[in-house]
Every structure is written in structure tokens, then in C-alpha cells.
Write a structure and sequence with these properties.
Oligomer: single chain
Strand content: 5-15%
Helix content: 40-55%
Number of helices: 25
Length: 628
């Protein structure tokens, strides 16, 4: 292949094509159904696309995508080779529906690094367990390996025919068919377990997603391929795809600037500046502009972000210019209030907004039955502060050079919203656990977690890394318990929890998005938000949560903003979709001059199908068990 690259560089195109073909054949014979084989085929397809053989390249890329779905983790090594494929597709999506379908399929196996890393860690966690799901998962891994080996044998004997191997070829084909049937049956068994579903590399076709969408639904998917940005918009009747007129770097800079105008941490203090509504409007027109007319018809907006867009809630983007112009005009008046954003037509004002991590997870979440839990609510938070305990001895885990400093435990989030939520629900089986009882060991030891329909964490989310040389290990901060407790509920520990919850609420700073930009830059981390969404949220879904509500930044207490959001969420009439209940509460804050800045109302993101109902408990005034 290296010789082929040299020949291509020197203009010997015919020779280069022959060498690419030879290299592909050699790899496929010796390493069939491996990431190396996919990379070789993608490299050959890239060559063809560069030299006027687009149709042939498209066919070869299609084979790469189809094979990648059956090889979990393989796309991590091929991702960087697919840019020519997306460019070919992008040139055809305006006139060719099959190009849209191909882009949609390819985008689902094009795992971003955060997902690939998370999937690998969660797969190791599942394979190391001792329950039924882990046993079946290990059997599936073994079957996958046997299938890959057998496919390689069949490929070798087919490409290099040998009369003496005719019987062996027939035997290998029969074995391959039997292994395929066994894997299909095993997959059906595994699909019952949420921990496997969150790992399963199952893609879906555009028409399959369209059948799952309801009237008023609009699914918007963003995919980054190198410096290229692609968008797809799908409703029951419409499917569009296009290349966005912006680079990944430009998108990163734009999102960072908008987030800085929402909230920044300066010298350890949260600072809020006038929201950059002009830049937010520009981001909307740049990314969503090609389907602006269709978006105005959508009542339920389902957003699958990628890259920097994971770090910004879509509901704070202005969908109309008139409100922005009116705001700029008001600023010209003497003593104008630059924090008063009433009158802006936010994307989240007139439509429900949900965030999802993949089309399959969205559809599966829509189909899963509601929780069978008999208890209404479990609230956990307000960790104990080690600094207040003179007898506290740091556990051995704190001696790790990559451990978080103890100072992180000295600023707990108030449990007031937990008490508020439990009092609103009012069920006598509601429980609130705070202070020293709220430890990772306590949570791990709770044997009745699956009894709760709503689980609410009010604590800090640590999503970056203590220092640049340390890996990002997203976790929720807890009190220190006994034994091996490290005061953190890691996403691997979350993955092992046995939940049956309609919703898990993470009212913790930056669990949905990037850590505050300043903190992230100081840590030398650029993908914290990606990892947080891909790690913490996927872990909770794998543990058995249907939906996760997470916050993009520290939720403010000023003007009772958080209290009003929580109250609106939990007092909505029975059967009200979560996204609708949240939006109605947010609209009240949007229309208040004190809280119209997005900092006060836009933090919470519903990850999953926001049209699921929270199903609040009807009984009122019952006792709430509280453990501190």
C-alpha cells in the first residue's frame, strides 16, 4: 500500500490502482473481517474517489460500512478514512434519496472517540460480570471470534481455489451458517438486558426511524468527519442531508464563545455575562438554516449532537431574527437591561426538546415499557465535607497521582431540591439520603434501587481530569464511605447498578456538557463533555434508566430558578410528557425579566425520549423518609 501511495503521488495512476488492489487482496486473505481489512478497503475506495471512479468508490465504501456494523470497535481505526465517502454522499444528497440513506447508515457506525472509549470500557465491565447478561455476552464474544475466523477460511479457499479443499470449503460454509444462526438466537436473548442494548452496535435505516416518529416529531442529527460537518433532518415524511457550511474548528470556536456568554468560572466564582444572542442566531442559521421552514412545523425536536454541539443545549438557539433585532434595538435606549431577553423566539419555547445518543437508543427507549417500581422517588445528594471532620483520614485511593483534590468535596450542592421534589410527590415511600449516608458504598449497597421510578442526584459531576496527564474518568461525587470507598460513583459503578427507573435526574454541574470552559482548558481536556454524555448517561441507561435529565452547567439558585423548574417538572398533570413539563416551566422563566437569560432556564437536557410521561404519584402530604 505504501508503494501504491508513492505511485499515486508520482502520477502512475494505473500502477497505483493495481497495487491498491493487490494490498487489499493480501490483507483480506490473511486478516479477513478485521479492522485492518476494513482500513485497506477504505484506503482503496479513497484512491478511487480521488481519480474519478466515484460509483466504484461508493460501492466499496458501502461494503466497509456494512462490515463495520458486525465488528464492534473496528470503526475507530477507519473513521479518519471516510471523509471522501461523506463528501461523495454530500454531493448527491440533494437529488438522490439513496445517498441520504447511505449517509444516515454510515453516521451511525462512525463512532466518535468518546463513544468508542466508553463502549470499550463498558464492554470490559459487562464481560467481567457473573450474572446472566455477562455470561451471554461472553458467549457472544466467543461466537463473534469464531465467525471471523471461519469467514477468513471461506474467503481464503474461495479466492484461491484448490480442488483438494472442496470438501473443507463446504464444511466451513456450513459451520459459518450454523454460527450465524447461533449468534442471532443469542442476540435475541441479550436484547432483553439494558446493559447489552447500550453496547449493541445496531444501526437502523431511515425508513425504520421514520416509522417510529410521530406527527410533529423532527429528528436532527449532526455528524463530524474530520473538519467537515454534516447534518440530517428526518420526519415521518421528510429526509434531508447536507454538508454544513462550517468547519469543525469554526463550530468549536462558536460554541465556546456562546457558552462563555452563558456561564464562566473565573477565580473559582461563577460569572454570567449578557448572552450572545447574535452569535447564537448565527449558529442556528448556519447549522439548521436549510430546514428552517420544516423546523417551524416541528413540535417535538429530537437532537443528536456531535462534537462541540454536545456542550450546548439546542433549546437556547433563536429561531427567528425579529426577536434578536428587537433586543438589539432595546439596547440602544438609556439604561437598557442587557440581561432582559424576553421576546426572543427560542427553539425550546414552542417545541419540546430531547437529546439522544443514537437513533437506535431513541427508538428502543420509546418502545420500552414504563418502570414497574413500587416506590416513587429516591433523592441522593449534599455530600459530607471532609474538612468538617477532624477525624477524617483520606482513603488509600486519594494517594493516586490522578486522584481529585479533597477540596472538590468541600462545596456540596444543597439538598433543597431533593426535599422539594419528594414533598411534591408526597408518597410515603419516598426516600432522601444526604450527608454522610450519601456515599458510593451506600449507593452500591442499596438492594432496592429497582423499586424506584425516579432517582435524583444533586451532586457535582466530575467530567474532565484533575491534570492534563490523567485520563478523564467521569463520576458523580459522593461522601466518603468505609472500606475501599473513594467518594466517587464512577460510570463503571453506575453501569453495574440494577435500576428500573423511568428517569434519573442528574442535577449536577456539567454532567451533560463540557465542564466549564475555563476548568476544561486548565485541565488540558477538550472532550470532557463528549465523554460525560457518552459515559455517565450511557451508564445510567445501561443500568436500566429509560430517560436521563442532566444539567449542562451549575444550576442557579437565584430567583428560585431551580425550584421553579423542579416544581414545574413534578407538578405537571399525570401523563404530561417530561419535555412538555420542563418546557412549560422554562417558559415561565423566559417570560420573567429576572430569569430570561438562558443561564436560568436552559441548563437541563432531557436525554432519551422526552415524550415519555413522568407519571407523578397522586397521593399528597405523606411522610418522606430522610436519612442524613
Amino acid at each position: 500500500m505504501q508503494i501504491a501511495l508513492m505511485a499515486e503521488t508520482e502520477g502512475r495512476i494505473a500502477e497505483a490502482e493495481r497495487l491498491y488492489a493487490d494490498s487489499l487482496q493480501a490483507v483480506e486473505i490473511e486478516h479477513a473481517n478485521t479492522a485492518a481489512a476494513l482500513a485497506a478497503k477504505a484506503s482503496f475506495a479513497g484512491f478511487l474517489s480521488r481519480h474519478g471512479q466515484g460509483d466504484r468508490a461508493m460501492a466499496m465504501y458501502g461494503e466497509v460500512i456494512a462490515s463495520a456494523e458486525q465488528l464492534p470497535g473496528a470503526m475507530a481505526s477507519v473513521r479518519g478514512l471516510l471523509r471522501p465517502y461523506f463528501r461523495l454522499l454530500g454531493q448527491r444528497t440533494a437529488t438522490d434519496p439513496t445517498a441520504i440513506a447511505r449517509m444516515f447508515a454510515a453516521s451511525q457506525v462512525l463512532l466518535r472517540p468518546g463513544i468508542a472509549q466508553t463502549q470499550a470500557l463498558l464492554a470490559r465491565e459487562l464481560s467481567g460480570g457473573d450474572d446472566e447478561a455477562s455470561t451471554l455476552f461472553r458467549q457472544n464474544i466467543k461466537l463473534t471470534r469464531e465467525i471471523a475466523v471461519t469467514q477468513g477460511e471461506v474467503k481464503r479457499m474461495t479466492d484461491i481455489p484448490n480442488p483438494d479443499e472442496k470438501a473443507a470449503l463446504a464444511t466451513a460454509k456450513a459451520r459459518l451458517a450454523r454460527l450465524g444462526r447461533d449468534q442471532t438466537a443469542l442476540g435475541a436473548q441479550l436484547s432483553k438486558f439494558p446493559r447489552y442494548r447500550v453496547l449493541a452496535p445496531q444501526t437502523m435505516q431511515v425508513d425504520e426511524l421514520q416509522k417510529a416518529l410521530r406527527p410533529g416529531d423532527g429528528y436532527f442529527k449532526v455528524t463530524l468527519v474530520g473538519q467537515d460537518v454534516y447534518a440530517m433532518f428526518i420526519t415521518r415524511d421528510v429526509a434531508k442531508a447536507w454538508r454544513v457550511d462550517i468547519t469543525t474548528k469554526q463550530l468549536e470556536d462558536m460554541v465556546a464563545a456562546i457558552r462563555d456568554s452563558v456561564v464562566k468560572v473565573e477565580n473559582g466564582q461563577v460569572a454570567t455575562y449578557p448572552f450572545d444572542v447574535v452569535l447564537a442566531r448565527r449558529l442556528y442559521t448556519t447549522v439548521f438554516g436549510p430546514v428552517d421552514a420544516e423546523l417551524h412545523k416541528v413540535t417535538n425536536f429530537v437532537f443528536e449532537p456531535d462534537g462541540p454541539l454536545l456542550q450546548l443545549p439546542a433549546n437556547l438557539l433563536p429561531v427567528e431574527q425579529a426577536g434578536v433585532d428587537a433586543y438589539l434595538t432595546r439596547l440602544k435606549a438609556p439604561k437598557a437591561d442587557e440581561f432582559d431577553f424576553r421576546g426572543i423566539a427560542w427553539l425550546g419555547r414552542d417545541r419540546d426538546v430531547s437529546t439522544v445518543v443514537s437513533p437506535r437508543s431513541f427508538v428502543d427507549g420509546r418502545d420500552v415499557a414504563s418502570s414497574k417500581g413500587t416506590k416513587g422517588y429516591l433523592g441522593l445528594g449534599e455530600n459530607a465535607r471532609p474538612a468538617l471532620n477532624p477525624l477524617f483520614v483520606p482513603p488509600p485511593a486519594m494517594s493516586d497521582s490522578c486522584a481529585w483534590p479533597l477540596a472538590n468535596w468541600n462545596n456540596p450542592i444543597s439538598s433543597s431540591e431533593l426535599i422539594l421534589a419528594s414533598s411534591i410527590i408526597g408518597e410515603d415511600k419516598s426516600t432522601v439520603i444526604t450527608g454522610g449516608q450519601f456515599s458510593d458504598s451506600t449507593v452500591d449497597g442499596l438492594g432496592n434501587l429497582s423499586d424506584y421510578r425516579i432517582i435524583h442526584f444533586a451532586t457535582h459531576g466530575l467530567v474532565t481530569a484533575p491534570r492534563p496527564e490523567c485520563p478523564a474518568r467521569p463520576a458523580l461525587l459522593t461522601s466518603f464511605g468505609g472500606g475501599t470507598s473513594d467518594g466517587l460513583l464512577s460510570f463503571k459503578e453506575i453501569f453495574d447498578l440494577k435500576l428500573d427507573a423511568d428517569v434519573v435526574i442528574l442535577s449536577a454541574c456539567d454532567t451533560a456538557g463540557m465542564a466549564t470552559v475555563g476548568a476544561t482548558r486548565e485541565a488540558g481536556i477538550t472532550t470532557g463533555g463528549n465523554f460525560a454524555l457518552d459515559g455517565l448517561v450511557r451508564a445510567f441507561v445501561g443500568a436500566g434508566a429509560r430517560t436521563v435529565i442532566a444539567s449542562h452547567w451549575p444550576v442557579p439558585d437565584d430567583f428560585n430558578a431551580t425550584k421553579r423548574l423542579i416544581t414545574g417538572l413534578f407538578t405537571a398533570p399525570p401523563g404530561t410528557p417530561m419535555a412538555t413539563a420542563m418546557r412549560n416551566a422554562q417558559v415561565g422563566l423566559m417570560d420573567d425579566p429576572n430569569t430570561s437569560h438562558p443561564y436560568y432556564w436552559a441548563a437541563f437536557a432531557i436525554v432519551g425520549d422526552g415524550e415519555r410521561a413522568l407519571l407523578p404519584v397522586q397521593s399528597q402530604g405523606a411522610a418522606v423518609k430522610t436519612t442524613h
